[in-house]
Specification:
The chain is α/β, with parallel strands linked by helices and 278 residues long. Helix content is 46%, strand content 14%. The chain folds into 2 domains: 198 residues, 2-enoyl-CoA Hydratase, Chain A, domain 1, CATH 3.90.226.10; 47 residues. Helix 9 runs antiparallel to helix 10. This is Enoyl-CoA hydratase.
Length: 278
């Protein structure tokens, strides 16, 4: 369980990850889980490198939004059975707790990452792969995509990596309970109807549509988008009154940005504003 030899450094330009593919185009970073022959399972090393990446994004102003996808027609089958589950059976409680905290760190890093994250889900999206999709800010599905939080299928609880906290907020308590107790697959159609997916597109278009959505976000006011993501997370633990006050402070801060002034002048001149992130 050693750390990757070359952890993420900032800025991300020129960084070549060992356990996934990375491309940054026009402010959109596309992360591709890339073990297609086994449906893109995660390993100890890929968990850590992904966590390092999302943490590093906070320090790279060139990255405005992020897309997460999988290679070869599948998103991710979750933790690798032989490279993760096998070794876990031999660990003591201390080692197992270190592992479960390490996997949870990935979700924490995604939620703390200031850039909005779009998941482009195709094919199988299971276990930790389903968690990565869940932890993203937006999700698009390819027709035929299937999502399963199948932890109980391997004798574990559904409370993994924040699933019991986050999933009910997305699809509701009863539906989340059904998926977590049974481990069954949720179809793309169910996911769209329940609000897990924003929409369903063809497999050929899911990545392009996710990148287009991420580009639209990237073209928006960077500070404003970051504040929206922060408030969406923080307000879970607030009363409505506290949330209204927090949003008043957040919006006042946004009004101090140059992008806010640019938007006013663009509106006055009947042109589309070009945001610069300051």
């Amino acid at each position: 369980m050693s750390r990757p030899a070359n952890p993420v450094t900032v800025p991300l330009a020129g960084y070549s990850p060992q356990h996934f593919l990375l491309a940054v185009v026009e402010g959109v970073a596309t992360v591709t889980l890339n073990r297609p022959e086994r449906k893109n399972p995660l390993t100890f090393e890929s968990y850590r490198e992904l966590t390092d990446f999302f943490r590093a994004c906070a320090f790279d102003d060139a990255v405005k939004s992020i897309v997460v996808t999988g290679a070869g027609g599948n998103f991710s089958s979750g933790g690798d059975v032989f490279e993760i589950i096998g070794p876990l059976v031999k660990m003591d409680t201390k080692g197992l707790t270190a592992f479960t905290r390490m996997t949870g760190d990935l979700v924490k890093a995604m939620r703390a990452c200031p850039q909005p994250i779009v998941a482009a889900v195709e094919g199988i999206c299971a276990g930790a792969g389903a968690i990565i999709a869940m932890a993203s800010d937006m999700r698009l599905a390819a027709s035929g995509a299937k999502v399963a939080f199948l932890f109980n299928k391997v004798g574990l609880a559904g409370c993994d990596m924040g699933a019991c906290a986050i999933l009910p907020r997305i699809i509701g308590q009863s539906r989340a309970s059904e998926l977590l107790y049974t481990g069954r697959f949720m179809t793309a159609e169910e996911g769209e109807r329940w609000g897990f997916f924003s929409r369903i597109v063809t497999p050929e278009q899911v990545l392009a549509q996710a990148q287009l959505l991420a580009k639209q976000v990237a073209e928006g006011p960077t500070f404003g988008n970051t504040m929206t993501k922060r408030m969406l997370a923080m307000e879970w633990a607030m009363s409505v009154e506290e949330a209204i006050e927090a949003e008043a402070v957040a919006q006042a801060l946004c009004m101090t940005t140059a992008d806010f002034e640019r938007a006013f002048h663009a509106f006055a001149n009947k042109v589309k504003p070009v945001f610069r992130g300051d």
